[in-house]
Structure formats: C-alpha cells, structure tokens
Design a protein that fits this description.
Elements: H1 5-12, E1 16-17, E2 22-23, E3 30-36, E4 39-46, H2 54-66, E5 73-80, E6 101-105, H3 113-127, E7 131-135, H4 143-147, E8 154-155, E9 161-162, E10 164-166, E11 169-173, H5 188-200, E12 209-213, H6 220-228, E13 234-238, H7 242-257, E14 262-267, E15 272-273, E16 280-281, H8 288-295, E17 300-303, H9 308-315, H10 320-323, H11 328-353
Parallel strand pairs: 4-5, 6-12, 6-13, 7-11, 7-12, 13-14, 14-17
Antiparallel strand pairs: 1-2, 3-4, 8-9, 10-11, 15-16
Helix pairs in contact: 3-11, 5-6
C-alpha cells in the first residue's frame, strides 16, 4: 500500500527542533512534500542557515520517514528563511530591510571584541546568510584593518553610502573616512548623528543579520543605538579574569536598563593551547564568563582560545574563519556563531510560537 501524506507528516512529528522545543510539522518547517510511488521528497525550511543541529534534524527526519511501510527512498532539501525579530513601525524606519540587529559589546577594551565581531559575521556569511558589519567604535575603528579593506564607500547624490564588501560581508566604518594618524574628538551629539547615519544613510539592502561592533564601555554610542532602533539582542564579550568580568556585568546591566535583550555571552582568550605539547594554559583564568552567564540565566555562546594564529590572521586582514576554519579557534568562532543564530531564531519565533489569547464576553 502506498504511503500517504498524512503518514509522512505524522512520522515527522517525532522530529523536534531542540532550540524551539517543537516538532518540525507544528513549526511549519516542512515544505513541498511530494510522494511518487515509494519515493518521498520534501524540504525542511529552518530559521537560519547557521543552524547548529541542521544535519542532525535532517538525518532524524530521513530515518523517521524511511521507517514507514512502502517508502523506498527519502529525498530531503535543507533550506532556510531567517525570521525578522525587529518589529516594523516608526522605530524601524532607519533599517526597514534588516531582519536582525545584533550589537557586540564589552565592558572594557582589550578583550578582542572587534576580532569576535568580524569572525562571527564571517561565520554567518559562510553559512549562507546575508550579513552586514557596522563598526560603531568611532574612536578606535579597527574593522577595516581586521578585514584588510583599503577601498572606501561610494556616496551618491543623496549622501547615501554604499557599504564596502569583503568576503561577501557588507561593511561600514568611521575608519574609511579617517587617516591612520587622525583622532576623533567628538561629544555625544556627533556620535549620535554618526550612529544614525550609519544605520539610515547606508544602502545595506536586504540583510538577515547586521552585526554592530560597539566601543567598549557604557557610553553615548550604546545609548544612541538603543534609542534609535529596536535591537534583536546584544552579545557580551569578556575574557575570563575577574577585572574583565566585573566590568562586563556593567555592560549587561546597561542593556537591561535600556530594555535591550542579551542574546548571550562569549568568553574570548579563554585558554592558550601550547603548540608543542597541546596542553591548555589558562593564562587569564578559566570559566568566569560561563559562570556569569549561568548566574544571570543568560545563554553561553562559547569559548574562544587565545592563539597566535588569530592574531596573525587579524593583522594580515585575513580573519581566521576564512583562512583556517578547521583550526581550534576557527571552529570555536563558527560554533559561537551557530549558537548565536539559534538564539536569534528563538526570539524570531517567539511571537509565532506563543498561543493567541482570545478574550470572550
């Protein structure tokens, strides 16, 4: 007897998205289901191309359908459609074509926040997402150097800028408009205007994610960003030692005070793996950022090792995610980006997953 559509869908109800805690059918992830004889074909449309359990769900779905009597083959196509977590409306007028806005923050300088921002953004690009990177560190812009960019943005007759593309990533930075020896000496209103221009005055096009590299601390740029647009959520970067963690908590407190969600915490320079013996050396301590995340009930997105290869790749303008993705640091950045994408997906699906409340009289 030939297998039916209802049987296939019932089998697929046994496969759950571990992040969203729902089965693939009720989530609406099963698309284009077709049955020809014993051959079953369908697509699984995920909420991000960077899904960390993409392959697991595909194989679970294949196994569930293959068990049905009469099924001789299962053909699954994996696709993705990133959900928009930023609400539309008056507050969204600056960035109507951007689905998710994710600032990368730190309480203090020197924790590698810009390096993390670049590699997270490129890991998302490599997954197939459309990504932009905005360098909001006006006083110390380093993104052009980290990406090896020497070009400058084009500006049209309406004073709108076209971002520079590198490795498939769209980039804007104050570093494009400064000489290396120049310093920006601005008060708050000028910083606010720059953030507004980098958001609304740049031709970003359709983006799944806009990563924003913030300056360290809890100052004017952070305040302006949260006032101008509704963000998807912030990522906090810290090193393991107490002094960095204490200041990182202030950044977390700032975003909470501004009613901005925290998507997670990343521990950078977590340990140093000796290239000769392979033993880890916890130069700055260990596990502090993860402990803070647990204490504050925040997602922990991963640990990035301290590695000379990361520094060399950054100095050369060839980020490690692009040049050595299979290295320990490269894999750590990619895993952190996948966990970040999962948290964004959870937020993007919350409205769809929440049952409608009906009031009757």
């Amino acid at each position: 007897m030939a297998v039916t559509t209802e049987q296939v869908l019932e089998a697929l109800r046994s496969v759950r998205d571990p992040d969203l805690q729902r089965d693939l059918v009720s989530l609406g992830f099963i698309k284009h289901l077709a049955i020809r004889g014993g051959q079953v074909a369908f697509a699984i449309e995920l909420t991000t191309p960077a899904c960390p359990v993409r392959d697991v769900m595909k194989e679970d779905a294949r196994a569930a359908v293959a068990k049905l009597p009469g099924v001789t083959g299962v053909d699954i196509t994996m696709t993705s459609q990133v959900r928009q977590s930023v609400p539309r409306g008056a507050a969204h007028r600056l960035v109507p074509t951007i689905k998710n806005i994710i600032p990368i923050a730190s309480g203090k300088g020197g924790v590698g926040k810009s390096t993390v921002s670049v590699n997270l953004a490129l890991a998302l690009v490599k997954s197939g997402a459309r990504v932009g990177l905005m360098d909001a560190d006006v006083y110390g812009p380093t993104i052009p150097t980290l990406l090896g960019i020497t070009a400058t943005p084009e500006v049209d007759e309406h004073n709108r800028m076209t971002p520079v593309e590198q490795y498939g990533l769209k980039v804007i930075s104050m570093g494009f408009f400064m000489k290396p020896e120049e310093a920006v000496v601005w008060r708050g209103p000028m910083l606010h205007k720059t953030v507004e221009q980098f958001l609304g005055g740049v031709l970003w096009g359709e983006l799944d994610y806009l990563i924003i590299d913030l300056p360290p601390g809890t100052g004017d740029v952070q305040l302006s960003l949260c006032q101008l647009i509704p963000i998807t959520g912030a990522v906090i970067v810290s090193t393991p030692q107490d002094v960095a963690l204490n200041v990182a908590q202030k950044a977390i407190a700032m975003f909470k005070k501004l009613n901005a969600p925290i998507l997670g915490v990343i521990e950078n320079m977590s340990y140093y793996a000796c290239p000769h013996c392979g033993q880890p050396d916890e130069i700055f301590g260990s596990g502090g950022a993860e402990a803070i995340a647990q204490r504050l009930a925040l997602p922990f997105l991963g640990k990035i090792p301290l590695a000379r290869l990361v520094r060399e790749a950054s100095d050369d303008g060839q980020p490690i995610v692009m040049t050595a993705p299979e290295s320990p640091a490269g894999r750590a950045f990619i895993a952190a980006a996948e966990h970040l994408a999962a948290q964004v997906s959870i937020r993007g699906m919350q409205a769809e997953l929440s049952p409608a409340v009906k009031v009757t009289f």
